[in-house]
Specification:
By secondary structure, the chain is mainly alpha-helical. The chain has 16 helices and 2 strands. The protein has a two-stranded antiparallel sheet with strand order 1-2. Helix 3 packs across helix 8 and helix 11 runs antiparallel to helix 12. The longest helix has 29 residues. The radius of gyration is 21 Å and the shape is globular. The two termini are 31 Å apart. It is found in: Membrane; Mitochondrion. One of its GO terms (biological process) is positive regulation of cell population proliferation. InterPro entries: EamA_dom, EmrE-like, UCP036436.
């Protein structure tokens, strides 16, 4: 079945904005500028300010939701399902998980490459699978367990590539690269907790995906913006790259933006791209399939890696290619992307039918087909 022009547009929008999201965040980290009070020029290292911008992009999805709802109600026959009423505080726990995971990942992005950052985010399927078994009572298919094992192997290969590159690359210290990689994996544990919380408490309320993303963005934006105040006074010594060596110096960030406005362009690219990426991802799931969304999400890792190489942000390492392919295979196995191919083989088709009966595949498909679950990883 051929895709329509609108479906091609959505796929292109998701791939483009998803790539821009990570690349713009990394671009901001590469800037250096003077700060406040004639501070010497220093790197733009403000992960929490970047996270606030990301949540602002998510919050804009709530604005889009109400615009679409208002436009739909003006029609003679409204077609949009706004979902049932719910208590917005249901989104507070997953929003806090999102806030912690996003902040940690932006800290890690300062320490490692954009491509490794994106590849290592694939580890979320390991922890999501294990937590879904432990807390949701889901039974994973044998192919999903194999996919988790392959993903672990891919993480080892990517980590080894970063370890080797840390000895050859002057861009990042070896200790920073290793720390950054570990922080990314730790953040994926928090993301998986977010997914399980949403699955257990939120999905049953039939909340519109844009409304769900926007509500979490609102909580994250408000809470993290308020936390910037105490962060301004918390000294962390050499762990901070800011002149005052505090956890986050938002005033220094604004001063650096004033001295080098291009930083603002990078931050706006991150904010705007996350809004369009969430919208495109949800639309791809609805208009095409969740499987297509998974494939596009894997392809943006390749785009980020190629663009980073072209811009000279990192060096080529063959092990990273191998790691990417292994992670891609693990993701494909976990999400069942191999099933359409095996379905053409009679004995495989019978085996797959048995697995479906034993593994409660209906629960798995419900998780995959819900746009909000994938959105938690996307942010």
């Amino acid at each position: 079945m051929a895709w329509t022009k609108y479906q091609l547009f959505l796929a292109g929008l998701m791939l483009t904005t998803g790539s821009i999201n990570t690349l713009s965040a990394k671009w901001a980290d590469l800037f250096s500028a003077k700060g406040c009070h004639d501070d010497p020029e220093h790197d733009f290292s403000h992960p929490f300010v970047q996270a606030v911008g990301m949540f602002l992009g998510e919050f804009s999805c709530l604005v889009v939701f109400y615009i679409l709802l208002f436009h739909d109600k003006s029609r003679p026959e409204p077609r949009m399902n706004p979902g049932q009423s719910f208590n917005p505080l249901l989104f507070f726990p997953p929003a806090m998980c999102d806030m912690m995971a996003t902040s940690i990942m932006y800290v890690a992005l300062n320490m490692t490459s954009a491509s490794s950052f994106q590849m290592l985010r694939g580890s979320v399927i390991i922890f999501t699978g294990l937590l879904s078994v432990a807390f949701l009572g889901r039974r994973l298919l044998p192919s999903q367990w194999f996919g988790i094992c392959v993903t672990i192997l891919g993480l080892v290969v990517v980590g080894l590539a970063d370890f080797i590159s840390g000895h050859r690359d002057d861009t990042h210290k070896l200790s920073d690269v290793i720390t950054g990689d570990l922080l990314i994996i730790m953040a994926q544990i928090i993301v998986s907790v977010q997914m399980v919380l949403e699955e257990k408490f939120v999905y049953k309320h039939d909340v519109h995906p844009l409304r769900a993303v926007g509500t979490e963005g609102l909580f994250g934006f408000v809470v993290l913006s308020l936390l910037l105040i105490p962060m301004y006074f918390i000294h962390v010594g050499s762990f901070s790259n800011t002149p005052r060596q505090v956890l986050e110096d938002a005033l220094d960030a604004f001063c650096q933006i004033g001295h080098k406005p291009l930083i603002l362009l990078a931050l706006l690219g991150n904010t705007v791209s996350i809004a369009f990426f969430n919208f495109a991802g949800i639309s791809v799931t609805k208009e095409i399939s969740a499987t297509t969304r998974m494939v596009l999400d894997s392809l943006r890792t390749l785009v980020i890696w190629v663009v980073s190489l072209a811009l000279g942000w990192e060096q080529f390492h063959g092990l990273q290619v191998l790691g990417f392919l292994v992670l891609l295979l693990g993701t494909a196995l976990y999400n069942g992307l191999h099933r359409p191919l095996l379905a053409r083989i009679p004995w495989c088709m019978a085996r797959m039918h048995t697995e479906e009966e034993e593994g409660s595949s209906g629960e798995r498909d419900r998780l995959l087909d819900n746009g909000r679950a994938q959105t938690a990883e996307d942010t």
